[in-house]
From TrEMBL:
The lineage of its organism: Bacteria, Pseudomonadati, Pseudomonadota, Gammaproteobacteria, Enterobacterales. This is Alpha-amylase. It catalyses: Endohydrolysis of (1->4)-alpha-D-glucosidic linkages in polysaccharides containing three or more (1->4)-alpha-linked D-glucose units. Residues 19-426 form the Glycosyl hydrolase family 13 catalytic domain. PANTHER family: ALPHA-AMYLASE FAMILY MEMBER (PTHR10357), OLIGO-1,6-GLUCOSIDASE 3-RELATED (PTHR10357:SF178). It is an enzyme of class 3 (hydrolase). CDD domains: AmyAc_SI_OligoGlu_DGase (cd11333). InterPro entries: Alpha_amylase, GH, GH13_cat_dom, Glyco_hydro_b, O16G_dom_2. Gene3D superfamilies: Glycosidases, Golgi alpha-mannosidase II, Oligo-1,6-glucosidase, Domain 2. It comes from Citrobacter meridianamericanus. It comes from the Bacteria. SMART domains: Aamy. Belongs to the glycosyl hydrolase 13 family. Its EC number is 3.2.1.1. Keywords: Carbohydrate metabolism, Glycosidase, Hydrolase.
Length: 563
């Protein structure tokens, strides 16, 4: 790839994207559920933080089995969140605040309550039958031994018929049949409809699952349930390129919108197909570093005793793959991940503001478009639930039961779930130290708060200059206003360190060099700090050693030979 092409400027490369989980952001009408009007009300806060785009998790009509990732109508808004007029107002108001709106595109599956699916069941002869994947039973059993991502067989029996339908995720999320051109046309029309509304683009959900191996064959079991993860037969499988190219050509490309594919299971060597000038998407999310603590992102009881060295290798390998192919994303949290502070910092003493800032400066200036997940900018942490009944997330409940089946005690199972539950990041946002943390004016929220003390809250941090909030604000200013050429478009080089526990890299152009150095451990470590201007430091001073979880951003004094 010629260097010029790689360094091409683009508006979405300059974005800083903030993920809003609408159910938990701000409940404007005090019914316990966050809503679109609530996002509108908080646009000034987001503008103050400095972000340039929001990615809003699904707000479509949905029975909410998977909190909106189970869509019953792509053209309607779930009444809990508001209506279409609210969404249009959000797009317009956000624009006035200098913020673009990206929405979630969930097209691997729908809800089982989508009219296509209900008609497919009610009238097996209708065209909708072929919008989904139905297969005959084999000896009264499912067609094969695939396990769904949320546990149990990936096949659900159709009542009154000797057949099953496929669901990669929950049984209330039947997979769409991408082999059917008529289904694909419906999807393209829907995407076009949304783009005409003026959204900036899409985060494309679970998109590497749309192509299934057409033999629908079983594989050797990988768990004591006799099943095998569906991913080996349905994730990034040969033939997916035909669908992804067509999707891009028929929709995204015509509008020049921005796209971010959720792309687990894509080997680094294949990134060139997914991103870059010829790629299916502008950027993808890479999960190698995010899932460092578990053997497999969806099986939380297979925990790994990971090292910072491995974490760093995963981060940098993804970076190199992004850079070689095009553009990437950089993130440490989202609505499927626990809080980074609890996951990446294992010493509770440093699960504090110092630690939160260390993680922030460590990931934010890597090559790619940075994402911030709501509450991350406050240094929010995981909760500690004591009973499985306190969880809402379907995958938490499934993982709990799978852990028991695999022989763990209920206390161990609960521990795994506390560490990994997706509910950790989905708790209502703490706006202030007032009733219900200012999430609403007193109604019981749909999900219990992380902590009822609301010690961590946005209002307090906005008014305190050394807060995590202000630290993020400063990171955004440095990247977008003060050093865009080097921090957005500059080269990226990992730096050698004596200690494996230091993550250090440089961003550099012909005449500037900025360095990010982070001690990812709870002990002081030696590092020769380069001479230069300290732009950011999460401690008051710099010694000969890096203090525990110290992070420093330095503008190096460069001579021409050095660059
Ligand atoms: C993606 C979403 C996740 C959802 C799943 C099924 O991984 O991020 O929240 O449960 O797809 O749609
Ligand atoms: Ca509400």
């Amino acid at each position: 790839m010629p260097k010029m092409e790689k360094n091409r400027h683009a508006w979405w490369k300059e974005a800083v994207i903030y993920q809003v989980y609408p159910k938990s952001f701000y409940d404007s009408n005090n019914d316990g559920i966050g809503d679109i009007q609530g996002i509108i009300a908080k646009l000034p806060y987001l503008q103050e933080l400095g972000i340039t785009m929001i990615w809003v998790s699904p707000f479509y009509q949905s029975p909410m089995a998977d909190n909106g990732y189970d869509i019953a109508d792509y053209y309607a808004v779930n009444p809990d969140f508001g209506d279409m007029q609210d969404v249009e107002n959000l797009i317009a108001c956000a624009k006035e605040h200098g913020i673009q709106v990206m929405i979630d595109l969930v097209i691997n599956h729908t809800s089982d309550e989508h009219p296509w699916f209900t008609q497919a069941l009610a009238q097996p002869q209708s065209k909708y039958r072929d919008y989904y994947i139905f297969k005959p039973a084999i000896n009264d059993a499912p067609p094969n031994n695939w396990r769904s991502i949320f546990g149990g067989s990936a096949w659900e029996k159709v009542a009154g018929e000797a057949c099953y339908y496929l669901h990669t995720f929950h049984r209330k999320q039947p997979d769409l049949n991408w082999e059917n051109p008529a289904l694909r046309e419906e999807i393209y029309a829907m995407i076009t409809w949304w783009l005409e509304k003026g959204i900036a683009g899409f985060r494309v959900d679970a998109i590497t699952f749309i192509k299934k191996d057409q033999d629908y064959g079983s594989l050797p079991a990988d768990g004591i349930d006799g099943l095998v993860s569906i991913k080996w037969k349905s994730r990034n499988r040969p033939g997916i390129e035909v669908f992804l190219n067509e999707l891009k050509e028929r929709t995204f490309q015509r509008f020049g919108c921005v796209t971010v594919g959720e792309a687990p299971g894509v080997p680094l060597a294949d990134y060139g197909q997914f991103i870059g000038p010829q790629g299916y998407f502008d950027m993808i999310f890479d999960f190698h570093a995010a899932d460092i603590d578990v053997e497999n992102g969806s099986e939380w009881f297979r925990r790994r005793d990971w090292t910072v060295k491995e974490f760093k290798q995963a981060l940098f390998a993804s970076q190199q793959a992004f850079i070689a192919s095009g553009w990437g994303t950089t993130f440490i949290e989202n609505h499927d991940q626990p809080r980074a502070l609890s996951k990446l910092i294992r010493d509770p003493v440093f699960q504090n503001e110092t630690g939160a800032k260390a993680l922030a400066a460590m990931y934010f200036f890597m090559h790619g478009t940075p994402f911030i997940y709501q509450g991350q900018e406050l240094g929010m942490k995981n909760f500690n639930r004591t009973r499985i009944e306190q969880f809402d997330d379907i995958s938490s409940i499934d993982n709990y039961h799978r852990a028991l089946t695999e022989g763990f005690t209920s206390a161990q199972a609960l521990e795994f779930i506390n560490q990994r539950s997706r509910d950790n990041s989905r708790t209502p946002f703490p706006w202030a130290k007032t009733i219900n943390g200012g999430f609403n004016s007193g109604a019981q929220p749909w999900l219990e708060f992380t902590h009822r003390d609301f010690e961590i809250n946005a209002e307090e941090q906005r008014h305190r200059s050394d807060s995590v909030f202000h630290f993020y604000q400063r990171l955004i200013q440095l990247r977008n206003l003060e050093y865009p050429e080097v921090l957005i478009y500059g080269n990226f080089s990992p730096l050698e360190t004596h200690s494996d526990d230091i993550v250090a890299y440089a961003r550099h152009t012909d005449n500037q060099r900025l360095i990010s150095i982070t001690n990812m451990s709870n002990t002081p470590l030696s590092y020769v700090i380069p001479v230069g201007e300290v732009l950011l430091n999460n401690y008051d001073s710099i010694d000969s050693n890096l203090k525990p979880y110290q992070t420093i951003i330095i503008k190096e004094c460069v001579t021409n030979e050095q660059v």
